[in-house]
Amino acid sequence: MVDLSSDVPIYLQLRDRVVEAIAAGELREGSSLPSTRALASDAGINFHTANKAYELLRQEGLIRLNRKTGAVVTTATADAAVRAAWTARLRTLLAEAVAKGLTDDEIDSACRSVLASFQTTPERGAS
Fold first, then answer.
1. CB 16 within 8 A of CB 23
2. Percentage of residues in the chain with pLDDT exceeding 90?
3. Closest-CA residue to 14 (of 57, 69, 60)
4. What is the pTM of this model?
5. H helices of 25-99, where?
6. Nearest 10 degrees: CA dihedral of 4, 6, 9, 12?
7. Backbone φ and ψ of 70, nearest 5°
8. 73-98 pLDDT, tens per residue?
9. Arch. (CATH architecture) of 10-73
């Protein structure tokens, strides 16, 4: 689940795995996530690291946190602010690909391949 030797902070790796699981349909609205203590124990990481990942997901509107129900996946809404932030991150990622010499066709093919790996939802439609 996490690569302890990666340059990417562990809390971001956890966040990314949850986002990918939601996109792939492995986690749906209402799905419960493990408690931060259980997640930390299973991943062999500090409780506060797992808590930081969940808090980031909460701020992004992807989960809700409740003392009784724990962490539960929610439906995120792509409003203008979400679209702008996502576009800024995408721009940087694409700039990195171009700067490292990937061609437009390679970038397009990689984007289509990754997008196809996620579950098609009625809102997104088939590619």
1. no
2. 80
3. 57
4. 0.83
5. 36-43, 47-59, 80-99
6. -100
7. 80, -150
8. 997 788 898 899 999 999 999 999 99
9. Orthogonal Bundle (1.10)
Task: Give yes or no for residue 120 having a pLDDT over 90.
Answer: no
Which amino acid makes up residue 61? Answer: G
Q: Where are the domains of the chain?
A: 10-73, 80-117
What does the block give as tokens for 7? 């340059």
Cα separation, 106 vs 97, whole angstroms: 9
For residues 18-29, one letter each, b for 16 or more C-beta atoms within 10 angstroms of the residue's C-beta and e for the rest, the string is beeebbeeebee
Amino acid at 3: D
Amino acid letter for position 5: S
pLDDT 10s digits, 11-59: 999 999 999 999 999 999 999 999 999 999 999 999 999 999 999 999 9
**pLDDT value for 127:** 45
